[in-house]
């Protein structure tokens, strides 16, 4: 199932699970199935990270053009609140966010297109995130925005009362004064 969200191009994707007495089987990614739904992205790199503490926040991150990344995000173990923020200058939803709980249990995935910052907060210990990227890691093009920026005003779950952050994320830029490398092509 592929569901639209209020942000153009951000989709919630829930692949079918075939359950039986052993457990389940799911095609967690099919380029053909996505293309048939009008989502034609060539992913080239898979990322996998483990966050041990509940309330770990990673983000809000992006890579700037020409190394911008589309991401297809899922939760391999545990649960997390995954967020996309529209940072395309001129977009009618600039600065707006969409979030969804992704978990091993619900099998839900979030498609975060290039032009959107991405971040998440873990909701269970030892949560693993697995995501496909449409371009390779290019640290020289990385940008970030503060996870709790007052103007973006993401309604994070309570688990983030005392978040675990990287040093980089703790001092990320605010939306005020941010000059986006992305422009909206309506
Ligand atoms: C992103 C990345 C990182 N690394 C290395 C660089 C560091 O030595 C180590 C940790 O990197 P970082 O602290 O940037 O990892 P996260 O904080 O999880 O960053 C990611 O978190 C948010 C949610 C994202 O969507 C991005 O994919 C990415 O920015 O992995 C690599 O070798 N390749 C990579 O593609």
Automatic annotation (TrEMBL):
Catalyzed chemical reaction(s): dTDP-4-dehydro-6-deoxy-alpha-D-glucose = dTDP-4-dehydro-beta-L-rhamnose
Any one GO molecular function term: dTDP-4-dehydrorhamnose 3,5-epimerase activity
SUPFAM superfamilies named among the record's database cross-references: RmlC-like cupins
Record function comment: Catalyzes the epimerization of the C3' and C5'positions of dTDP-6-deoxy-D-xylo-4-hexulose, forming dTDP-6-deoxy-L-lyxo-4-hexulose.
Metabolic or biological pathway: Carbohydrate biosynthesis; dTDP-L-rhamnose biosynthesis
Official protein name in the record: dTDP-4-dehydrorhamnose 3,5-epimerase
InterPro entries xrefs: RmlC-like, RmlC-like_jellyroll, RmlC_Cupin_sf
Membrane-spanning segments: none
Residues forming coiled coils: none
Keyword hit for Cell inner membrane: no
Tagged with keyword Transport: no
Domain of life: Bacteria
Organism expressing this protein natively: Aquisalinus luteolus
Keywords, alphabetical: Isomerase
Subunit structure comment from the entry: Homodimer.
Gene3D superfamilies reported in the protein's UniProt record: Jelly Rolls
Family: Belongs to the dTDP-4-dehydrorhamnose 3,5-epimerase family.
